[in-house]
């Protein structure tokens, strides 16, 4: 019988089906960080359980770490205590930790792929909803809660119901200035913030296959923003070329065997999906969000909707009031105070290169504060070796040290109340970047152009 | 995990859609390393001004409304996977959230916390909001073994679905970890037969 990519991977990881129909699913890779792991380690402690497979876990500190002076002790006591707790737990249980100062430290969803830990056909979990990022490699990857983090620590397994399958096909060629970020913001704006709840999404079509691995990661990363359990893309030559030679990737004969298996990971021709959506790449323009969930997105030169369903009216108006916008208006010309380029969505070397290529020889607007937070130490080092740090500094952008930073503002990197920030991150929820902050999500290219212009512009007129 | 069987309570209405976990518990309050105390910051930025004083128009500050049931608009708990959102609701005294659908990760986290995510239809949810709007003291009886939500005032009974395994877990106070640990021999056998683990 024809099988989807998702089902091929899921079936290969079912230890057994429990009475009642839930599957016991084996987890190949477990990524942990300082915020959602301490209570899970406590759970093991309280139940006197050992960590079952320490070599399948990798830890890093990313969510609340400062992005300046990482060589100094963390000033904020609660953040320091969480990071210290992670260090102590990893030592006690024998978990590999790439903590602050380590050459491999970074945002958990950036370092997994760059180290070759993220592989096609694998099951990958982390106590973080953006774990869907790893699906870009043809892995089944999804975010879990802390109780489940403890379950994986104790047994390397989770008890799960099989989600429904959705395929989103985007065919055609993306227009100039339209990036992977615009593609996913467009899809979410069409399906809505809960439009894929209950589903695991496969992205397909020529526009998706044409994306780089960085672009595919951006797309899969935001699957959760339409409620999907995860998102994935069939592995292909682009995938194998990215993975080959990375630190933890298979080598030699094992690599050959792995690739032979990975080439079988695609949805069979006759696969029937529970839901299908088709989009044309030519219909996608550079995007921006105007509201307080990622589904509230429009083309840069479009208008905020005037009409919404009656049931959504109260939430919609609350959202616009928070943002200081009106129904039906255009965002063009709106002054922006901050530009944040970073997060597990858009902080990879390709993103930094795109920003540097645009801002080279230009200056950010005087009233804009522009910060760039690389996704990892490796991205930071690569940027420096390519001279991007100098280009960015000359344009008035501040290149920080790696972490989640102003995406969720657990550290000092906060947007003040009432200020507008064009951000390359993934969530524009109320207060996400700090109490009262107003976030407009966009691509790194849109963010770079906004920083230089100091206001929202139709970027198609400003492309180099 | 505490057992859950039945609950007789009034409800607190929050008729907004797409309430994300950043609103339920903002990220800056996720720095505790235990499960306790998150209730203090439940809906912090909707409940309090920047200086910590209460916002009088928010429902949790409205003396008319109380109870262990939160009645919320559809797509409740979207966004971040933070289980702290379920812990915060539980810590603040809630035992049931009623909505017309829940984000997947939140649903799982709630069940693992002993908080019942009770899903009704859009039409049923509208009728429940209307009842509470008319009378803030409207009582509800949640019966998990029977899978019913009963409103004595109107004699209305709504049947709800729940995964049978998760239902047994809630009723008995079990969690998945107990079951999974009991499956160790099967897990070890799986590891043995798997030939392609890189």
Automatic annotation (TrEMBL), chain A:
Heterodimer of LeuC and LeuD. Pathway: Amino-acid biosynthesis; L-leucine biosynthesis; L-leucine from 3-methyl-2-oxobutanoate: step 2/4. It comes from Hymenobacter telluris. GO terms for biological process: L-leucine biosynthetic process. Binds 1 [4Fe-4S] cluster per subunit. GO terms for molecular function: 3-isopropylmalate dehydratase activity; 4 iron, 4 sulfur cluster binding; metal ion binding. This is 3-isopropylmalate dehydratase large subunit. It catalyses: (2R,3S)-3-isopropylmalate = (2S)-2-isopropylmalate. [4Fe-4S] cluster binds at residues 344, 404, 407. Its EC number is 4.2.1.33. CDD domains: IPMI. HAMAP family: LeuC_type1. Its cofactor is [4Fe-4S] cluster. Belongs to the aconitase/IPM isomerase family. LeuC type 1 subfamily. Catalyzes the isomerization between 2-isopropylmalate and 3-isopropylmalate, via the formation of 2-isopropylmaleate. Keywords: 4Fe-4S, Amino-acid biosynthesis, Branched-chain amino acid biosynthesis, Iron, Iron-sulfur, Leucine biosynthesis, Lyase, Metal-binding. SUPFAM superfamilies: Aconitase iron-sulfur domain.
Automatic annotation (TrEMBL), chain B:
It comes from the Bacteria. Pathway: Amino-acid biosynthesis; L-leucine biosynthesis; L-leucine from 3-methyl-2-oxobutanoate: step 2/4. The keyword Amino-acid biosynthesis applies. Keywords: Amino-acid biosynthesis, Branched-chain amino acid biosynthesis, Leucine biosynthesis, Lyase. The keyword Ubl conjugation does not apply. One of its GO terms (biological process) is L-leucine biosynthetic process. Residues 1-121 form the Aconitase A/isopropylmalate dehydratase small subunit swivel domain. One of its GO terms (cellular component) is 3-isopropylmalate dehydratase complex. GO terms for molecular function: 3-isopropylmalate dehydratase activity. Its EC number is 4.2.1.33. It holds the Pfam family Aconitase_C. Gene3D superfamilies: Aconitase, domain 4. It is an enzyme of class 4 (lyase). PANTHER family: 3-ISOPROPYLMALATE DEHYDRATASE SMALL SUBUNIT, 3-ISOPROPYLMALATE DEHYDRATASE SMALL SUBUNIT 2-RELATED-RELATED. Catalyzes the isomerization between 2-isopropylmalate and 3-isopropylmalate, via the formation of 2-isopropylmaleate. HAMAP family: LeuD_type1. Heterodimer of LeuC and LeuD. Belongs to the LeuD family. LeuD type 1 subfamily. This is 3-isopropylmalate dehydratase small subunit. It comes from Hymenobacter telluris.
